[in-house]
Amino acid sequence: MIFSKHKKQGAEVGRAIKKTLLMGTEAHITKKNNKLPAAAINDRYIVGFIIYFSAMSIDMVFKGAFWKSKKRMEFLIRCWQEVGIPMNNIYDFLKVMGDPIKEGIWDKDGQYSQGKNAAALVLTSAYGVLNREELQNDIIVLAQKIAKKRMQISVENNSDLFENSALAAAICEVTIQRHMKKYYSEL
Q: pTM (2 decimals)?
């Protein structure tokens, strides 16, 4: 049982990603459809977010920097299955990861990089490790305003952990959820 803990962790991250993506669609409001729109799975912005968020989670959340590649792949595959990514797309994801030439092909319009950057901002803000340049990023400035308003309304204490969580949620709202709403809210 101990040997499959990383797969359970992958599934946990996959559920979080899927929930985050669905929050930008009507499915979140109506609770009718718990499945991502098929077109979203091929959207390079969404794909960049999913790949980078899941891969960064291994190191940042689960301290898996020294995991063997097999264990990392099992985590990622389980994560992406939970999101609802078909196996043929999962194989494509695995081929692209870490291959700058293939990533360049996927990023011809810049959407893949934007999705990766959104994932990086979410995770680094959640852990309070944004650098000075990132703190001046338009996305962060807007997200900080949203987070500040929410924290004033909330009865929770304003610990650093709560502030970081509020900021990470606001970054999701102004990046990936806004993208989902713009392109997939009617699907």
A: 0.85
What does the pLDDT read at residue 186?
67
Domain that holds residue 78: 2-129+177-184
The neighbour count for residue 2, using CB atoms within 10 Å, is 5
Do 99 and 54 contact (CB within 8 A), yes or no?
no
pLDDT, tens only, 93-121: 999 998 999 999 999 999 999 999 999 88
Q: Is 54 within a domain?
A: yes
What does DSSP assign to residue 88?
H
- Reading the block at residue 19, the tokens are 């929930």
Q: Is residue 95 part of a domain?
A: yes
Is residue 67 within 8 A of residue 58, CB to CB? The reply is yes
Overall number of domains in the chain: 1
